[in-house]
Amino acid sequence: MKSVSELLENTLSKSPYWAEARYHKRTSQALSVQKGLVKQAKSNLTSGVGIRVLVDGAWGFSSTSDLSPHSLEKTLKLAIECAKSLSQLKKAQIKKLPPTKLAKGLFIIPGYELLQKMPLDQKLQAVLKAEEQTRKSSSLIQSATCVYNELFEDKVIVTTDGANATSSLARNEIKLGAIASKSGEMAESHESVGKTGSWDCLFSRSSLSEMSENAAKLAVDLLSAPKIPGGNAVLILSPAMVGLLSHEAIGHTVEADFVLSGSVAKDKLGTQVASPLVTLSDSGTVNGIKYSGGELLVDDEGVITQKTTIIKNGILNSYLHNRESAAIFGVEPTGNGRAWLYHDEPLIRMRNTYIEPGQQSLEEIIATTDEGYLVDCPLGGQADATGEFMFGAQKVTKIENGKLTKMYRGATISGQAFEVLSTVDAVSKEFLLDLGSGYCGKGQPAKVDAGGPFIRCRATIGGVQE
């Protein structure tokens, strides 16, 4: 019996045009517990092949879940027909893809087999126990939830110009939520972590029991916390908040397809866009960090992922590229072509996006802050192509005369990302990737991670509307 790689190679040998075939099998499992009850326990398997061709500067794409030679050849023909039709209507930006170093061989991220061998019931019992511990941590906790998700990804990517890569990885995440109530007041908190690896990788920083305690304690503490006064202020952003800013407000603006559409980063390469203390990168693997939530060795175009320095010492240094945009800009692809499922076409997507660590300690940065706020525990938010953003934060702590004082109830921070980064005057040596749970959306989902050090900057802060 032919291997998947051989099947794809044989199919593409019949194409008179550049072509790419991507086999993708995904096995997913999801568990959800609320108030001691199992709300969800499901598994799903999806597999198939997507074939993409480039004809006279136009892309054609088709997919199938049938891996028979006849079906694969039919899928190739349909992709070619689509491309030919579009080539007559669309003005081509590129006629062909320039040569680049493409991935060949096996690309395996450790943890896949260990997670696969772990019984589902063992994971469910852990989720049940975590929810119960959160719920029973305080009489003020009215409700608790615990959600666990995992994805097993197997891919084979073959192109007519030399890529032939087989990859396997497992991604998992666990999320805890708690709602506390007292005298008509309610407060909600969340704890989450996401990794690429085994079950144990999730708890390299905090145990599941500690996560339960933290979620419950924060919800209870927020009950008595006042709302924050608004205004422009000095902020120390935690690694999680820095990750949210780096990904949402900077990362999307430098994705080359958005740049071509006119994002705020257009025509700014080589210009000062941030403080000289800021170096911001996007990478498939992060030096010194294992099992990051966005870890990726090869992208869905068969390009080996690399570290891309987007901002270097405050200067905009690079955009994020797939093979097509790299050809348009005359640069090497950065390994950012990613597709969610086999029937999705690759888009330019981030992997792990972060600001590089600095030289100061968090303790030193707080001690040299006369007045401001330490902002942590992101609640998501929004940003647009102009770099304007508004993010929520669960936990904000006042800084007075170099000391942490009282806690405030959740807040929003807002501003223009490049302007905020231009005010950065302190960057900590402490570093953390802290956004590996959840998904990035851009037409299709993607698993990513983001983070960085603690940074001190200025932005607008305001209270969350109840």
How would you portray this structure in words?
Helices cover about 20% and strands about 40% of the residues. With about 475 residues, it is α+β, with helices and mostly antiparallel strands. The chain folds into 2 domains: about 5-225, PmbA/TldD fold (2-Layer Sandwich); about 230-465, no CATH class. A hairpin with a 2-residue loop joins strand 2 (about 35-55) and strand 3 (about 60-65). Helix 1 packs across helix 2 and helix 4 (about 120-135) runs parallel beside helix 5. The chain is globular. The relative contact order is 0.14. The model has no long low-confidence stretch (mean pLDDT about 95).
Number of strands: 24
The outline comes out as globular
Number of individual domains: 2
End-to-end C-alpha gap: 62 Å
Q: State the secondary-structure class.
A: alpha+beta
Largest β-sheet summary: 7 strands, mixed
Indicate the proportion of strand residues. Answer: 35-45%
Supply Rg: 24 Å
- Count, helices: 10
Helix percentage range: 10-25%
**Which stretches are poorly predicted, pLDDT < 50 over at least 5 residues?**
none
| Mean pLDDT across all amino acids | 95
Summary tags:
single chain, 466 residues, alpha+beta, PmbA/TldD fold, 2 domains, six-stranded mixed sheet, 10 helices, 39% strand, globular
Gist?
The protein is built from 10 helices and 24 strands. 22% of the residues lie in helices and 39% in strands.
Chain-wise SSE layout:
Layout: H1 4-12, E1 18-34, E2 37-55, E3 58-64, H2 69-87, E4 104-108, H3 112-117, H4 120-136, E5 141-159, E6 164-182, E7 185-196, H5 208-223, E8 231-237, H6 239-251, H7 256-260, E9 280-283, E10 308-312, E11 315-316, H8 323-329, E12 337-338, E13 347-348, E14 352-355, H9 362-367, E15 371-383, E16 388-400, E17 403-408, E18 411-416, H10 417-422, E19 426-427, E20 432-433, E21 440-441, E22 445-446, E23 449-452, E24 455-463
Parallel strand pairs: 4-6, 8-15, 14-23
Antiparallel strand pairs: 1-2, 1-5, 2-3, 5-6, 6-7, 8-24, 9-10, 9-14, 10-11, 12-13, 15-16, 16-17, 16-18, 18-24, 19-24, 20-23, 21-22
Helix pairs in contact: 1-2, 4-5
